[in-house]
Amino acid sequence: MKKIGFIGLGVMGYPMAGHMQSSGYEVSVFNRTNLKALNWKEEFSGKVSSSIDELSENSDFIFLCVGNDKDVRSLVLGEGGILENARENTLIIDHTTTSSKLSVELSGKCHSKNVGYIDAPVSGGEVGAIEGQLTVMCGGNQNDFEKAYELISCYSKFIKLMGPSGSGQLTKMVNQITI
Q1: Residues 6 or more apart in contact with residue 115 via CB below 8 angstroms
Q2: Annotated active-site positions, please?
Q3: Strand ranges (DSSP E) for the chain?
Q4: 133: Cβ contacts below 8 Å, ≥ 6 apart
Q5: 159 with 153: CB under 8 angstroms?
Q6: pLDDT digits (tens, 9 = 90+) for 40-87
Q7: Residue 1 pLDDT > 90, yes or no?
Q8: Residue 90 belongs to a domain with what CATH number?
Q9: Is the dihedral of CA 130, 46, 159, 161 positive or negative?
Q10: CA dihedral defined by 46, 47, 53, 58, rounded to 10 degrees?
């Protein structure tokens, strides 16, 4: 069974992780505010990781849905972070809206350690996350996208690989400008 780690249980991440757990996947969550993680565990009968390194060591797929570039950089590259602890062939799926430049940088650093990386910002808001009807714009390589597709589809109505790393973020920027 695929082991999934999910970091960031805000208004988007909480239901997204819940949809994967409800779809039969084994999901372990981490949140800065542990009470949110405990509430999620109670609601969805999932697991809670006590630290980023614990989650990273025990996950085949690691989803991020956090605040900004600084948060993502710290989680992936920081001391005790994901890249320091993830096993080879782990795949990181980052749903945070960040700069495309950061996505390209992280993808390169992850791939140099045999860890996959997809930038996958979402559109659809809180209601879309709750109803499992998000649109996900992905940047990365085809192989990683295909590995992640089934999991992302648990909470999405439309998923598209837009191009190489950073393309998901660029598409999200265009989407934000036009709506």
Answers
A1: 82, 83, 86, 88, 89, 90, 91, 92
A2: 172
A3: 3-7, 26-30, 47-48, 61-64, 91-94, 116-119, 122-123, 134-139, 156-163
A4: 124, 127, 156, 157
A5: yes
A6: 999 999 999 999 999 999 999 999 999 999 999 999 999 999 999 999
A7: no
A8: 3.40.50.720
A9: positive
A10: -70
Locate 148 and state its tokens.
């992640």
DSSP string, 39-75: HHHHHH--EE-SSHHHHHHT-SEEEE--SSHHHHHHH
Which amino acid is present at 165? S
Domain count of the chain?
A: 1
Q: pLDDT digit string (tens) for 25-46? A: 999 999 999 999 999 999 999 9
Local confidence band at 179 (pLDDT 50, 70, 90 cut-offs): confident
In the block, residue with structure tokens 């998923």? 159
Range of the domain at 42: 3-178
